């Protein structure tokens, strides 16, 4: 990682780290940070083995792509809270559990951990951090959920036994058809292969596009996630740069057309009037 151009062999720029002043390759640093975020790390060690310091938040945020920044901030916030605060399993909205006041104390003991998220209305269990399991205690639910997840992740006939809906978390089994699934409970469209929601944006592609940031991870370089994100991010950045230029060019052409029209239209009307007078033999 350290040693500049000779260290990474990619000819990329190098810069010193604020903690130990050792120079590192920017591209290698970005890959290292992304890998740490994917592992759920909030406190990230300096990549230089001789340094025992943690990288500061500013350095980490500056060298992460947008998607990893969101994850890093989430893990950072999660590391700073106590056990009385947990994120919603669906939308990650943080809820603080209080037996009185903020969360009313139910009359039934088994329902005291029942939480309804104020942001997405998802109902979940604060104690085991799972979707709400009516009539089943946390231990029994976790045991059954573990068996279900194990069965769902097993591959039979070239596909998973089941895939979890990214919104309501229920497991859905595909018997036939394509990877495009629609949850019968919440109507969410998602990909059966990777489990992600279907997203699309005009000019930036959709889940079936190989080079789109919304594309399925299995459609392009599935075994090389860092390179896939780099390529797709570069394509997205290129489109973001081109889009304003196209808009400006369109506005410029429109303005030119208006200016030309202001001169040409009166002349056209005058010529048309002259031809009409010539045909009727009327004098000017």
From TrEMBL:
SMART domains linked: IBR
Entry EC number(s): 2.3.2.31
GO MF entries: ubiquitin protein ligase activity; zinc ion binding
Primary location class: cytoplasm
Reaction(s) this enzyme catalyzes, per UniProt: [E2 ubiquitin-conjugating enzyme]-S-ubiquitinyl-L-cysteine + [acceptor protein]-L-lysine = [E2 ubiquitin-conjugating enzyme]-L-cysteine + [acceptor protein]-N(6)-ubiquitinyl-L-lysine
Topology relative to the membrane: Single-pass membrane protein
Protein name: E3 ubiquitin-protein ligase RNF217
Biochemical pathway: Protein modification; protein ubiquitination
InterPro entries associated with the record: BRcat_RBR_RNF217, E3_UB_ligase_RBR, IBR_dom, Rcat_RBR_RNF217, TRIAD_supradom, Znf_RING/FYVE/PHD
Domain of life: Eukaryota
SUPFAM superfamilies linked: RING/U-box (SSF57850)
GO cellular component: cytoplasm; membrane
Keyword line: Cytoplasm, Membrane, Metal-binding, Repeat, Transferase, Transmembrane, Transmembrane helix, Ubl conjugation pathway, Zinc, Zinc-finger
Keyword Repressor: no
Family classification: Belongs to the RBR family. RNF217 subfamily.
Places the protein is found: Cytoplasm; Membrane
PROSITE patterns: TRIAD (PS51873)
Pfam families hit by this protein: IBR, IBR_1
GO BP terms, alphabetized: protein ubiquitination
Repeat found in the keyword field: yes
Functional summary from the UniProt entry: E3 ubiquitin-protein ligase which accepts ubiquitin from E2 ubiquitin-conjugating enzymes in the form of a thioester and then directly transfers the ubiquitin to targeted substrates. Mediates the degradation of the iron exporter ferroportin/SLC40A1 and thus regulates iron homeostasis.
Enzyme class: transferase
Occurrences of domain RING-type (ranges): 1-220
Organism: Terrapene triunguis
